């Protein structure tokens, strides 16, 4: 080959490499071009760019979009257009208050085509007049569990050509599912309480939707004496439970005559004092979701029998500690105060009469994964003015797949939860290489089993099989089987009330 030919090849190679580097730089710049959510952005044309879905190869779609302005009212949309030519449903149906609809004709989805395979499916909403956006809520496509994958995953919003949001929407589930999101996916452009109160007046979610009670699938006969909180939701189903209608009950108040016999140990308490020393890393805040006090008969001590004072002096905040709403992610139901590591936050509980206190049940701060770092970590517990013990509180998870309660037992002779667990099963080994004993209170699975599916009842392959022998078996009733939900992984949690050493976990697959 001539020198001119070699030189031409080298020049072409250098050109290709340069173009490749420029393309990569542009891609990085685009990824790093973060959008800061503005306060009450104002404009007339809202552009929604649907960048990707949850896995469907052919379609992408939405159920509906709700838009509220700074006046609290819904924005008046003059017209809505799209750049795609092939779609099902009516574009105007996106603006109808039909948030729990499963009819595909009343939702909207576009077919991906060679022209928009890059994800540039655009919806343009033109308002009747320029307005300030306060809240936008998306209800994702949810015709069925399978078709939920059509729903939008990554989305970008531009108002009059200026980016105001880029992020991920949750995958929706069928509207008759227990996993249906209650409030859709909300993007807030304000934190003004006055504006949010105005929105609440016009918000169909808060006006028309009935409250969905938490199902209580246990009965009083199934309560075990060693469960500290009598009405705590079970994280494992009983195998032989007959078909019974689902009921919703308030926390039962048991008279003394029906209580369990007192345990051998009792701790007579007049004043219970907690010093909260550190949190899990959040700067300037510390909090709890809730507390419960349990007597020597394993019964809850009613809040009428004591008074609570916290160092911040806010009685309204303090009341949230004992409001009974502990399995929640709603920050309005949680106790959160300012925190300075040099000055511990205190909670003082004074009983009107001396009580036999057996245990304290704690739910750590759980508003979200990020805010769970505001939960209490290190604490000192004083009983009648004397230091009882130093406690490390377990960090909350940021979700409510299981009851994340932590029981602090006051009996010094009682081993606090030295438990871990046993796909037909699992067997964790402790620090001394002996198998840790496990109880159902240490285990939580989500989804719990195939019994969550509409047409399956009393399947024996429930999660408690994970910790009960035999493990090395081919008999299905001794195994665990659960449903695999769209875009979700099955989870198994082993939860301890004290720090526990685990050296090895042995897993027996299905």
TrEMBL record:
Organism domain of life: Eukaryota
| Region entry Disordered, spans | 415-435
Compositionally skewed regions (Low complexity) per UniProt:
422-435
**Boundaries of each KATNIP domain copy?**
15-171, 311-423, 434-510
PANTHER family, per this entry?
KATANIN-INTERACTING PROTEIN
Q: What is this protein called?
A: KATNIP domain-containing protein
Q: Which organism is it from?
A: Caenorhabditis remanei (Caenorhabditis vulgaris)
Q: What is the lineage of its organism?
A: Eukaryota, Metazoa, Ecdysozoa, Nematoda, Chromadorea
